[in-house]
């Protein structure tokens, strides 16, 4: 219906438009309904429409199973992923994503009103931001663009501001000044929960048995921490974070393992949040971790878990302290703008 209405609106402006479902556009996926992954895109019909001077309108979020030929849906972020996949298949110079904010900001504007808009961000940094809770672009969308070396231009549907370029070659973007900051931004995620197995026997293969059960239950894990075992008991604690929606499935899978593994207690905490500092510059600048943790301590934020990569430091904190943690980290690395530059036009800050 939306495609037909858009085609009619474009027709009223004097242009010819043709609409296509995901199947008609050649979006071929696996058979995982609800979270299908794109296998290939064969955009022959789209190319023909463009060659005839028509504006092609494609339904995002959907495709066709390669095996069963059934219609599939791509899951969260599927529309952005469809756009990037089509742009790559058509060998476009850039994929423009229009949303309800003016680009990618150094933090969520609803928490930090003085967050700055980033002119450019590398695909590596954008991947980390997306994985750590930044909702402006979906993780799969960024992964696909990086794999095909396709620049993404994030702009607002409600303004003519220049937006943000997601690219690994910013020097090719006209009018963009390339300057590598130490920290790119602060991301947060309130959608996770923490599971702790208390008193796990510290023996070879126990961790493998636990995580194999979770994998069999199709549970995605994020941060994992195992404590040093107590010498007196020979037991250790294993904690990990996961999407809150996967909590009941994970708890059921682990409960079935209690007699086999012999852990003492199973705990579930859904009142946590993850705050992440992201920036390629931290590779070559010592002291980033110390400054981050000092800022959190000054704000009275207690750290429950820590995880790092080459360009990211993530901490798990109490959900009620997420806003304070984000604001204090943002200020500590001098990411604040002199004025309120961020506007969330649609209310979601997607």
Largest sheet: 4 strands, mixed
Roughly how many Å apart are the termini? 23 Å
Q: Outline, from the CA principal axes?
A: globular
CATH architecture of the largest domain: 3-Layer(aba) Sandwich
Name of the CATH class of the largest domain: Alpha Beta
CATH homologous superfamily grouping of the largest domain = Acetylglutamate kinase-like
Structural class given helices, strands, pairing?
A: alpha+beta
Please compute the radius of gyration using only Cα atoms. 23 Å
Query: What is the CATH topology descriptor of the largest domain?
Result: Carbamate kinase
Number of domains: 3
Q: What order do the helices and strands follow?
A: HEEEHEEEHEEHHEEEEHEEHHEEHEEH
What topology, given as strand order, has the largest sheet?
Answer: 3-2-5-6
Total strands: the figure is: 18
Strand content: 25-35%
Percent of residues in helices comes to 25-40%
Write down the overall mean pLDDT.
Answer: 90
Provide the low-confidence segments as ranges.
Answer: none
**Distinct helical segment count:** 10
Write the layout of secondary structure elements.
Elements: H1 2-12, E1 17-20, E2 27-29, E3 38-41, H2 44-51, E4 55-58, E5 62-65, E6 71-73, H3 78-89, E7 95-99, E8 120-121, H4 123-131, H5 139-147, E9 152-156, E10 164-166, E11 185-189, E12 192-201, H6 206-216, E13 224-226, E14 235-243, H7 247-255, H8 258-261, E15 265-269, E16 272-278, H9 288-298, E17 305-309, E18 312-318, H10 322-332
Parallel strand pairs: 1-4, 2-5, 7-9, 8-10
Antiparallel strand pairs: 2-3, 5-6, 9-10, 11-16, 12-14, 12-15, 13-14, 16-18, 17-18
Helix pairs in contact: 3-5, 4-5, 9-10
């Amino acid at each position: 219906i939306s495609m037909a209405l858009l085609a009619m609106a474009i027709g009223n402006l004097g242009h010819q438009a043709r609409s296509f479902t995901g199947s008609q556009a050649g979006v071929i996926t696996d058979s995982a309904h609800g979270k299908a992954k794109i296998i290939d895109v064969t955009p022959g019909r789209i190319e023909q429409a463009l060659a005839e001077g028509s504006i092609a309108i494609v339904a995002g979020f959907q495709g066709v199973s390669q095996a069963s030929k059934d219609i599939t849906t791509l899951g969260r972020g599927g529309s952005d992923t469809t756009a990037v996949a089509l742009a790559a298949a058509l060998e476009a110079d850039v994929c423009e994503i229009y949303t309800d904010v003016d680009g990618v900001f150094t933090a969520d504007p609803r928490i930090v009103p003085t967050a700055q808009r980033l002119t450019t961000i590398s695909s590596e940094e954008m991947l980390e931001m997306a994985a750590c809770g930044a909702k402006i672009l979906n993780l799969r969308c960024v992964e696909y663009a990086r794999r095909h070396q396709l620049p993404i231009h994030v702009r607002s549907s409600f303004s003519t501001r220049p937006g943000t370029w997601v690219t690994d070659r910013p020097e090719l973007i006209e009018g963009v000044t390339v300057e590598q900051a130490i920290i790119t931004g602060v991301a947060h995620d309130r959608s996770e929960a923490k599971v702790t197995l208390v008193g796990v026997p510290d023996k070879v293969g126990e961790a493998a048995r636990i995580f194999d059960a979770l994998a069999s239950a199709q549970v995605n894990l994020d941060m994992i921490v195992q404590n040093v075992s107590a010498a007196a008991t020979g037991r250790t604690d294993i904690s990990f974070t996961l999407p809150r929606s996967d909590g009941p499935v994970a708890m059921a899978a682990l409960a079935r393992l209690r007699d086999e593994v012999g852990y003492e207690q199973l705990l579930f905490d859904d009142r946590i949040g993850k705050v992440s500092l992201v920036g390629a510059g931290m590779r070559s600048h010592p002291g980033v971790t110390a400054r981050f943790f000092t800022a959190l301590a000054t704000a009275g934020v207690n750290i429950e878990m820590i995880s790092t990569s080459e360009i990211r430091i993530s901490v798990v904190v109490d959900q009620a302290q997420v806003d304070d943690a984000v604001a204090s980290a943002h200020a500590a690395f001098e990411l604040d703008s002199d004025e309120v530059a961020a506007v969330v036009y649609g209310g979601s800050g997607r």
